[in-house]
Amino acid sequence: MATVFINGSIIPQREARLSAFDAALQHGVGLFETFVAIADSADAPRVIHLGEHLARLATSAQTLGLAETIHTDALAEAVQRTIRQAAVDSPETIRFRIRLTITGGDLNLLEAARGHSAPQQQPTLLIVAQPATHYPDEIFSRGITTVLGDLKLNPLDPFQGHKTVNYWARLRELQQAASKRAGEAILLQVSNHLAGGCVSNILLVKDEEVFSPVSRGEEEEVAEGVDGDGIEALGDSTSGAVLPSPVLPGVVRRWALDMLSSEGVRTERRLLALQDVLDADEVFLTNSSWGVMPVVKVESRTIGDGAVGPISRMLVERWRDLTASKG
User: Which of 188-191's residues contact partners 24+ apart within 8 Å by CB, and which partners?
Assistant: First the structure.
């Protein structure tokens, strides 16, 4: 059973509807965030990394012109309200998957773009809470197989690196991966640099160091050499130009990098190639649904010795600790 919040009200699932003229349906205008909540306290459910998710949403909304200001405190309150109701609706459930979506609202943006008069924009806020997907423990102890996807991300597309509602291409790649009995598809950029998974970020372990592709918002920082060598290809050193990244700045990716640094593991964000993946000692994927997912094979190529490595195992355990019920 799902608990649905729309524009300030909790709506029974069977009655939850959006306008046929909502900009998300008409033009694909909208952003979303997905996160996990632990309802082990009826009064104060825990939402994992809620602040980070809402901050990313607010940045994307302003950057892409969805809204000049996103009131993250009000969004956080709406999320908490939805989860509290979900705990009442599904009292046997402790772990919930929350999807928060903000669209352009009931507004014909095409007419507005043509100069026609239009009412003031009223974005649609939709929050859905439902029992989280259960991933068997064996997946994390044995690792998954991935395939190489056909979709390539364009760093010059300003909408890449943001969680827009236009997710069809990625989900199609994920479907094709599932048809090959793979758990994810690895995507490259049009430059053939590594991007990540369809619905995840990717990190590699080589010689006890962890590497991750540069994500949106990190280009200037990394190009200035903050993360060490090997990043000159980000831009033209003579002109100062820096190539933008189409990689989403993943919240769990950031958590993993911070956790590794706190454990004394050297981390580096840089441009990577598919060969770096194939030559890695360990590979793992991060997102807010599964946390940390070890990868032991890409197509027919085995990663490392084919077993989940120590760094991946450590992060899997740290994520379990973070998201465990305290009740």
Answer: 188/148, 188/149, 188/152, 188/153, 188/274, 189/152, 189/153, 189/154, 189/155, 189/246, 190/152, 190/153, 190/154, 190/155, 191/155, 191/243
Report pTM: 0.91
Q: Tens digit of pLDDT for each residue in 218-262?
A: 998 887 654 443 333 444 434 455 789 999 999 999 999 999 999
- Which residue has 């991060």 as its token pair? 286
* Alpha helix stretches (DSSP H) within 263-307: 274-278
- Residues 6 or more apart whose CB falls under 8 angstroms from that of 276 comprise 194, 204, 206, 211
Q: How many H helices and E strands in the chain?
A: 10, 17
Residues in Cβ contact with 56 at an 8 Å cutoff, skipping those fewer than 6 apart? 33, 163, 249, 251
**Cα separation, 75 vs 61, whole angstroms:** 13
